[in-house]
Amino acid sequence: MEKITKWLKDKKITEVECIMSDQTGIARGKIMPTNKFIQEAGIRLPESVLLQTATGDYPDDDIYYKLLDPKDIDMILKPDEDAIFTVPWAIEPSAQAIHDCYDSMSNLIDLAPRTILKRVLELYKKKGLQPIVAPEVEFYLTKRCTDPDLPLEPPIGRSGRQESGRQSFSIDAANEFDPIIEDIYDWCEDMGLDIDTVIHEEGMAQLEFNFRHGDPLKLADQVFIFKRTVREAALKHNISATFMAKPISGEPGSSMHIHQSILDAKTGKNIFSKKDGTASDEFHHYIGGMQTFIPQLMPIFAPNVNSYRRYQSCGEGNAPMNIEWGEENRTVGLRVPKAPPAARRVENRLPGSDTNPYLAMAGNLVCGLLGMEKQIKPRKPISGRAEEELDEALHTNIESALEAMDESQEIRAIFGDNFVDGYIATREAEYEGFKRVISSWEREFLLSTV
């Protein structure tokens, strides 16, 4: 705690938000005065937080009491000294400290998403490898709307007008939201988040921020904090921001593309390239692993019922419908950008921006690791345009995706039965809640006709 204590005192922090990510990616925890935080060096939260859904509900009792102590005991949360950030939007000098979840025996709890990513990174470390990732996060800015039955609309920009039509890569369109973008950049700089470029994406008032490449755990922490930052910046300007995968009918979905490469930990060289600069066997096996195991991890890359609308909307955006691969090809799910040998990488374009960043990083790296271990050969690369139909290997809905994850022995062997069972249970609980809601489509077309 010495490093954290010094940091807090140097910045004259008076209040600390003690947070962790649940399975959905929601920040949960406690807020306390700095002195109390330093004295206690951690907090306690009920274990049940790790099985809480986006709606605040829990899975059925059978799985709940199978995975958790029936006495609803506490877990112990300890802060990571390398994952503490300011809270630039707070009124008083405040900090947000990301915590890891431990049991009473000081073991990391395997239901926690950050634990899963740490477990995967340890597997790489044992092989003398260092993964490098670079996420790209998309989101929509929208008018404030408190009625969930009403469709979302673009906010009013600096010109006093709403956007209309597609404005991909338009500088002027991005500048419509310059006050918000400036706040995001200023706050991210204050927190030390490694954001790089911002672009206007295809959708109306849809933006994308790119992160600089680096360590997966650090970047997962940063994406976790970045989402909070964007929402707060939007609220400051009386609008909303959403990371839903498909928030607006007829508009493109929002993704979280993840670039990834693997370094030899001793030499620092990219193992995806041979000495002569050509692609290595490890590179091809990594892609082969992604093609093989992504279908078994779709509930991580597409975690809720809305996620699958992004894949089923042909012609509404660049969401990939496949797990093909190709060089400089944005119609495939696994794109290989043109780059020098030292920067050879693969970009997974399948995850939505609604995914939990810790699990998205872990999922990608597991697929690639299994591919290298099993020496899986990829399909032939796509040189032209990929088919605009959903790949048969992928899943069209959350139900079939959860079934595939449930049956994957390879994923269970790495993530652990407790996590897989618990994660599936929270997704199923959310889906059951969704099915109980009568939609506006049903009221519009069936109310007076059937």
UniProtKB/TrEMBL annotation:
Pfam families reported for this sequence: Gln-synt_C
Annotated GO biological process: glutamine biosynthetic process; polyamine catabolic process
Record InterPro entries: Gln_synt_N_sf, Gln_synth/guanido_kin_cat_dom, Gln_synth_cat_dom
Keyword annotations from UniProtKB, A to Z: ATP-binding, Ligase, Nucleotide-binding
Domain GS catalytic: residue ranges: 113-450
An annotated Gene Ontology molecular function: ATP binding
Coiled coil: none
Family the UniProt entry places it in: Belongs to the glutamine synthetase family.
Xref: PANTHER family: GAMMA-GLUTAMYLPUTRESCINE SYNTHETASE, GS CATALYTIC DOMAIN-CONTAINING PROTEIN
Protein name per the record: Probable glutamine synthetase
